[in-house]
Design goal:
Largest sheet: 5 strands, antiparallel
Number of strands: 8
Order of helices and strands: EEEEEEEHE
Number of helices: 1
Strand order of the largest sheet: 6-4-3-7-8
Helix content: under 10%
Mean pLDDT: 93
Radius of gyration: 15 Å
């Protein structure tokens, strides 16, 4: 199918689409992953994955752009929300060099950044190992992708 947008919707109680991400969910605050919920899930969905990526960040490493803040996968297909600071699923590696969520913290004076929270709906559970990068996750999930969509939040350092 490829990575075309689908009807699945992703929302957060913490911020609206296009709106600012509260400081508590950033590196300047408590650095907690925001609560997320989704619906209009494609028929046949058996698993989900979540990614948070900042395409406005300076180049991080050769062959990629932006900055990966969160890679979360092995989420069951009957799940429809994640609580704030979730412990659900399996954490991959972010560009901070850590596992789990690392909140927005763009360079000072770099202006407003856009944070894309992506949800991927998969047609089977994959039982992937912990620590995968975003590129590794996308490579492993692409053949099983039923739908994808995003919620975009913004943040600018004070």
């Amino acid at each position: 199918m490829g990575f075309a947008l689908s009807s699945i919707t992703l929302n957060s109680q913490a911020f609206t689409s296009g709106g600012p991400i509260p400081a508590r969910h950033t590196g300047e605050g408590e650095d907690l992953s925001p609560a997320l919920s989704w619906d209009q899930v494609p028929d046949g969905t058996q698993a989900f994955a979540i990614i948070c990526h900042d395409p406005d960040a300076p180049l991080v490493k050769q062959g990629s752009y932006g900055f990966v803040h969160w890679v979360l996968y092995n989420l069951p297909g009957n799940l429809r929300h994640l609580e704030e600071a979730t412990t659900e699923g399996t954490s991959g590696s972010n560009d901070f060099g850590k596992s789990g969520y690392g909140g927005p913290m763009p360079p000072e004076g770099h202006g407003t950044h856009h944070y894309y929270f992506w949800i991927l709906a998969l047609d089977r559970p994959l039982d992937l190992p912990a620590g995968m990068s975003m590129a590794e996750l996308l490579s492993q999930t692409e053949p099983y992708l039923l739908g994808i969509n995003r919620l975009v939040g913004t943040y600018q350092r004070g």
